[in-house]
Design a protein that fits this description.
The chain is an alpha/beta fold. Helix content is 22%, strand content 30%. It contains 6 helices and 14 strands.
């Protein structure tokens, strides 16, 4: 099935946020870089609603627009863990001269066990994968073969693991266990850079091969 998925790139480090057409005039977003709320407001068709925001993790670049998006749309925010300044890397961001993240509320704390959910009338699979961030998660739409991974997996690479709680062995193990068994034609939508496919990464990603 071909579902309309649009990507927005914003913030100081060029973070990708995604807007996914769901069912019954609903939309679902994945991550919320700075400026995402205004972008979503421009793109939503008349009468449509953003009902859910899925956070792949809560490093500052992925959540700078979360509070504004929640305020504008009343969307429910889903994440592996509750909001905290530790998860958003407030201290590091401040040292880099970046403003603090405006606090938001995680309405649905998913935890660290793989699960399934229905958001926006779509069936999702959730794969919590730590290593880049302690609260990392990938979200999979099996009906569309679309995967949203944040900074877990990139085209030809994986997320950095030098942040607090990071672990390359944990990250690679999670990718191999949960993501590499997905169909090779599955599109991998990353938190930075271009999209790739599971098959491409199975063959050419030096961290996975």
């Amino acid at each position: 099935m071909s579902r309309k998925i649009q990507v927005y790139t914003g913030g100081a480090v060029g973070c990708n946020g995604y807007l996914i057409e769901a069912e019954n005039n609903q939309y679902v977003a994945v991550d919320a870089p700075l400026g995402m709320a205004a972008w979503v407001a421009r793109l939503l068709p008349e009468g449509a609603r953003l009902t859910h925001l899925l956070l792949t993790h809560q490093h500052f670049d992925h959540v700078e627009g979360a509070a504004e998006l929640q305020q504008r749309t009343a969307c429910r925010i889903h994440a592996v863990a509750s909001y905290s300044k530790t998860l958003t890397l407030e201290e590091a961001a401040g040292a880099w001269g970046l403003p603090p993240v405006v606090p938001y509320t995680v309405d649905d704390v998913l935890g660290t066990t793989p699960a399934k959910a229905n958001w926006g009338g779509l069936d999702w699979e959730i794969f919590p994968i730590a290593g880049h961030a302690t609260d990392g998660a990938a979200y999979y739409l099996p009906g569309d073969d679309e995967l949203f991974v944040g900074d877990i997996l990139f085209s030809g690479s994986v997320g950095r693991t030098d942040f607090p709680g990071g672990s390359m062995s944990v990250l690679v193990r999670g990718i191999r266990e949960h993501l590499m068994p997905l169909p090779p034609h599955t599109t991998v939508n990353s938190g930075h850079g271009p999209a790739t496919t599971i098959g491409e990464e199975q063959l050419n990603n030096p961290y996975i091969c």
